[in-house]
Amino acid sequence: MDAVEISRLQFAVTGSVHYLFVTLSLGLVLFVVAFQTLWTIRKNPAYERMTKFWGRLYVINYGAGIIGGLVMEFQFGLNWSGLAHATGNVFGGLIAIETLVAFFIEATFLGMWIFGWNRIPRVLHLGLIWVVAATAYVSAYWILAANAFLQHPVGYEMRDGVAFLTDFSALLRNPNLVDALLHVVSAAVVTGALFVAGVSAWQFLRRTPDVAEFRRSLRFAVVALPLGVYPAIHFGFLQEVVIEQSQPAKLAAIYADPERSLRVQRELAAQFGPGDWIPPDWVSVPYQIMMQTTFGLALVSITLLVLLTRDWLVRLRVPLYLLVGLIPVPFVLVVCGWLVREVGRQPWAVYGLLSTTDAASPLSTGAAAASFAGFSVLLGGLVLLNVTLLWRFARRGIEDDALGMPLGAALGPSTSDDDSLLVGR
């Protein structure tokens, strides 16, 4: 394994881990926004307690994602200096905009939200988390705009081997951007829904005293699940139309079609010269895992909606175990999707413009291996820390002082007459 292959493996690990944090943050913030909005409108303290519980888990994961993002940014300069040199004027600008949005706007407003509990007017405080959510998705837009340029470079011209931006609007209208963005947003909804549903189900299995709150969280998540699953399927298939036009080799690889692969190979060899222009055959494996499992989740989502009737979802208890077991599934699926999108672009770093070999930094094999080992240990520790903290604070259940000042006895949890039946008491 040479330095380029090691750098590719490092990027796969770094990108996958960071993507896990981002996807959960994008999905979970929607529930925090929904619960705080309901609390602001209805004045029901149960929604405030839900906001604080899920908000604390969101903040933990967000913090881990920030660290993962810094590692991701650092490796571009360390392992991919060729990419920065050739396309930094275009690709780098989009990354810079995303960084400004994420670090200066999103993080600032999140800090104000964290420390603003019971210190600023309730409506203004609600506006802060709405801004956090909006900027999170704007940040995702800029990242995918940058990635779309790698998939299908537009809006540039080459001068002495360096790409210069000529049409900024073309970057924002890239055909590889819109469907991919909507697919990612849908996947984030699925991830957030299954995380909220799974943690809520786990609370019922351990006989939580906070029945009213987790009952509501569970219902919200079950209703949100199909709102993410079915659009994810829809926009996933829509992307194949664009891929067939801009990256025919990727489509041949994910379909594992030998005849199509041979035909595309001949066409690309005529265009770019001799070489192997077809991505690795194994890229079809994560594609099939992603597609088949998502179809399964579509069926599960409808079944769970039916089980909401008369609280069968909780009373039968078996669905609760299923929901806990489904927590890691969307994380596996988003990594599979990322592998299909990125590995399916090989052997190009920027499709048709810059090969992966030319994009890599001139590192020795030893230096690349040391970099990979160091990054892997750091990210592995970050994942372990994030999971440990999420589990520890989820296990505590709902605490009045999770964020801000204690609510006080007058704002204790609300319960309904049949709540005790839901936990077998």
Work out the radius of gyration. Answer: 23 Å
Please give the count of helices. 16
Calculate the terminal CA-CA distance, rounded to whole Å: 60 Å
Strand residues, percent: under 5%
Q: Mind explaining what this structure looks like?
A:
The protein has 425 residues and is mainly α. It has one domain. It contains 16 helices and 4 strands. The strands form 2 sheets. It has a two-stranded antiparallel ribbon. A hairpin with a 2-residue loop joins strand 1 and strand 2. The chain is globular, with a radius of gyration of 23 Å. 44% of the residues are buried.
Secondary structure: elements and pairs:
Elements: H1 3-42, H2 45-79, H3 81-115, H4 122-151, E1 156-159, E2 162-165, H5 168-172, H6 178-205, H7 211-246, H8 248-254, H9 258-272, H10 284-307, H11 312-315, H12 318-325, H13 329-343, E3 348-350, E4 354-355, H14 356-359, H15 365-395, H16 419-422
Antiparallel strand pairs: 1-2, 3-4
Helix pairs in contact: 1-2, 1-4, 1-6, 1-13, 1-15, 2-3, 2-7, 2-15, 3-4, 6-7, 6-12, 6-13, 7-8, 7-10, 8-9, 10-13
Offer a few descriptive terms.
mainly alpha; 3% strand; globular; 425 residues; 16 helices; disordered C terminus; two-stranded antiparallel ribbon
Produce a short descriptive summary.
The protein is mainly alpha-helical.
